[in-house]
Amino acid sequence: MKLALLAFGLAPAVFPFLDVPFDPTVVTNDYVIRIGGESRESDSSPSGEEWVGESYSILKQGTWTIPNCLETGFMLEVRFDNVPEDLAYLDLEVRFPRMQLPTGGSRDHVKRREPVEVYDGSAYFYYGYYFDHEFERGLGKWEFTLSHQGKEVYYGAFKIVDCDSAKP
Question: What are phi and psi of 3, to 5 degrees?
Fold first, then answer.
């Protein structure tokens, strides 16, 4: 039985045509600060608004721990290899500490369909978020799940910590 499990585990290395579909690689997981841009309403954003036309500067590269200082946030980029050429979207679910929105409601997750473009069997997913208001600054996990046809193809999580913990 152990030999069968070992052989199955080695199969993709020995038989490359058995590659695991949707092979994810994290390209970017950075702590960033927003530069410029304009805020607009968006129902698919955790806070109910999104930034357009902004740029950012990287404060710390390759980290899963993000201080929740105002006007800072995080960037996530995942490359998927071995993707079907006809893939048009992935389903995204983001779970985060509950926010009491200024509109009177609250939110602790968002779901949306993310369009993707496939080039030579690879596709990219991008997500960025900035803490611009006090109500967004809850501590805890921000969890990202990407699925295709109901099957999870990526999971990752940032740990959001108090802004003061980032100061020397």
Answer: -65, -40
Q: One-letter amino acid identity for 136?
A: E
What pTM did the predictor assign? 0.82
Q: Which residues contact 125 (CB under 8 A, 6 or more apart)?
A: 76, 77, 78, 80, 90, 92, 114, 116, 146, 154
Per-residue pLDDT tens digits for 74-89: 999 999 999 998 999 9
The SS3 of residue 74 is: strand
Mean pLDDT of the region 114-123: 93
Residues in the chain: 168
What is d(CA 74, CA 165) in angstroms, rounded to the nearest whole number? 16
Beta carbons of 57 and 120 less than 8 angstroms apart? no
